[in-house]
Amino acid sequence: MKINVLKKIAITLLVTSSLGLAACGTSNKVSNSNSDKILVGLDDSFPPMGFRSNSNELQGFDIDMAKEIEKKINKKFDFMPYNWDGIIPGLQSKKFDVVISAMSVTEERQKQINFTVPYIMEKQVIVIKGDSKINSPEDLKGKVVGVQLGSTSEHAMEPIKNTFKEVKEYKNNMDAINDLGIGRIDAVVIDELVARYYLKEQGSKFKVAEKELSKEPVAIGIRKDDSAMKEQLDKAIQELKQDGTLAKISEKWFGEDITNNK
């Protein structure tokens, strides 16, 4: 998952998230594997995965999923907002037991921590107008393509950007989508989680092209030595996939099921 992209969006979407962040990295809690509670590290300024409502309550896809996992494993999650740049060291030093915060499974991270089975296959996608004929990265040849400056989307399109007519860089994704709407650009390369969240209420004005640029699994982060935790969470996630619960949560936050990991 493209964490830095969504953190920038969160600033404009939810000013109240700062209330939760004020305590990030300051807690002296230490996880206890024998407890009936599981401490969860997360970024709580990360819509639509985990963020604060106007009343400062945690909400989002990851929060809803965690509540369903609780029912499967008969334990309670205790959420602990934490600075994202220290989230892996925090897990390793047992500040919390797991990370549930749309964490992408990368080769570098796998050297440091373990992961559950993926619950979302994250993608870098192409957003286009509803009547556009663009269906794949190849169709961007000769087009004007927008992207958020410094985002992982910018990195994802690097191999093919020399085929574009022009790359227009934006400070945030909403500016790019607005320009797409008025015809200044032909497409926007963007993180799928961001795209689905933005476009959920847009109806047929915009759509996501059929073929993505890249895929990246998203899973729960666990310490290397905690095989028991991995086993029970893997089982719970698989059951939530099979009984349709994850699909329902995805429909709520994205308007469609993006949890099938295809």
From TrEMBL:
Q: Does the keyword GTP-binding apply?
A: no
Keywords tagged on the record:
Signal
Give any Gene Ontology cellular component: membrane
| Solute-binding protein family 3/N-terminal domain sequence ranges | 37-257
Task: Return any one Pfam family short name.
Answer: SBP_bac_3
Q: Which residues form the Ionotropic glutamate receptor C-terminal domain?
A: 37-256
Q: Answer whether the UniProt record assigns the keyword Signal to this protein.
A: yes
Sorted alphabetically, which CDD domains does this protein's record hold? PBP2_AatB_like
Alphabetized InterPro entries for the sequence: Iontro_rcpt_C, Solute-binding_3/MltF_N
| Gene3D superfamilies linked to this entry | Periplasmic binding protein-like II
Q: Which residues form the signal peptide?
A: 1-22
Report which superkingdom the organism of origin falls in: Bacteria
Any one GO molecular-function label of the UniProt entry: ligand-gated monoatomic ion channel activity
PANTHER family (UniProt xref): ABC TRANSPORTER EXTRACELLULAR-BINDING PROTEIN YCKB-RELATED, MEMBRANE-BOUND LYTIC MUREIN TRANSGLYCOSYLASE F
- Protein name in the entry: Amino acid ABC transporter substrate-binding protein, PAAT family
